[in-house]
Amino acid sequence: MRIFASLRIAGRALRRNKMRSLLTMLGVIIGVGAVIGSVSLTSGATKQVENQVTSLGSSVITVFSGNFTSGGMRGGWGSAPTLTVADAEAIAGLTNVAGVSPEVRDREQVLANGLNWNTQVQGESPDYLQVRNWTIASGSMFSDLDVRTLAKSAVIGKTVADELFPNENPIGQTIRIRNLPFLVVGLLRAKGFNLWGSDQDDVVIVPYTSHMHRITTRTFVNDILVAAANDQAIYGVQQDITDLLLTRHRSREQDFTVRNQLELMQAVTATSRAMGFLLAGVAAVSLIVGGIGIMNIMLVSVTERTREIGIRMAVGARAADILVQFLIEAVTLSAIGGTIGIAGGIGFSTAVAYAKGMPTVTPVIWIVIAFVSSAVIGIVSGFYPAWKASKLDPIDALRYE
Fold first, then answer.
1. DSSP alpha helices (H): ranges in 94-173?
2. What pTM was estimated for this model as a whole?
């Protein structure tokens, strides 16, 4: 019952000085709001990055043509053509490999319908869609038979379709690449921009054999895309690919580079999370400032209410009752401020995310942490004033003017 009585007294004391109570809570409101807002925005950005990486295929392993040493000159990955279609076929036979696509790439001027567009033309296998976690919006992907027969079939991205076939169905239409006619058999579902700001939909995909023997003349591929069966198998497959190619190439130095998409996701999300914790740490300074404000106001309140404290002690209130009363007032201030701050932080992050067209995620654990932190700050900052009030001598308090 004494707790409820202390709550009523604390409520009356706070209502008597509404403006002062609001200003006291302001530091906590700003601190908690800043923590929740920064965490929500960085969590949303991390989620967006994860979705973009997943759209590229989270279990993807990329084998790059690679290193070379010649006449004292050395180069890193991509500096020398070292990968072949035979390498890709050998990789396809490894355990836990779900799909393989030898990849060749060039930028070409593509013509159709009296229009032209400069775009990325990629030679791939039918496994490309599975590897890149991509789907067809209309039509179909070219087949293994098209690869074997060097068919002039093409699958195009939405950007290419919009530029060459505005307001038309591109399926069944013909595009010309280096004056060679290719039949459009499929339209890729729109993906948008990737992590590096490139338009993933600005692409034309043809069988890699058609690219290597019709569009260009080459015997090497730029890289090999490999899909592991699952995320757990990705590092094992990566090591198996390395061992296989070392054996096949019989080179003293590793003339290729193997990277996996999981490493990219972990690196990017780790950076985003580190930035989120940094922002939350900076925002937490406001909580400390808010706690100092609460302590200051509670000390003033003890001084102003010295006579009231003396009267309460004279009629039987114990030191513990006085301590609890002032602690409750401090915790109430910080808890209300924390609640308002949480609501304000969520509202602010939602508004910013909406304006920027990005997602926002507010982890429940951070809401709990913010609320508990505000309550703890109330207890810590209110303890000394409450302790000071409880130690007042009743006679001296009654004499206080």
1. 128-131, 144-148, 158-164
2. 0.61
